[in-house]
Amino acid sequence: xxxxxxxxxxxxxxxxxxxxxxxxxxxxxxxxxxxxxxxxxxxxxxxxxxxxxxxxxxxxxxxxxxxxxxxxxxxxxxxxxxxxxxxxx
Length: 89
Description:
By secondary structure, the protein is an all-alpha fold. It has a domain at 2-61. Helix content is 58%, strand content 0%. The chain is built from five helices and no strands. Helix 1 (2-8) packs antiparallel against helix 2 (13-19) and helix 1 (2-8) crosses helix 3 (25-35). The chain is extended, with a radius of gyration of 21 Å. The N and C termini lie far apart (51 Å).
């Protein structure tokens, strides 16, 4: 049951195996299939779990991200590479 719930929250098999170490990829897939949970619905924000998580944690997450923004430095952009006529890569 735990594997299906974690999959329903969008977690990968590798992550699920950390919490359910005795399960193989096939066993996780079978449990997810039988439960009817779909990872894609969570990733798209369509599932009730995704909507609940966004509703309950959205403002907290936004605040944490806003706190980090001033610390992020813009990446130095390199000039584009010049192409030489007649060369193919």
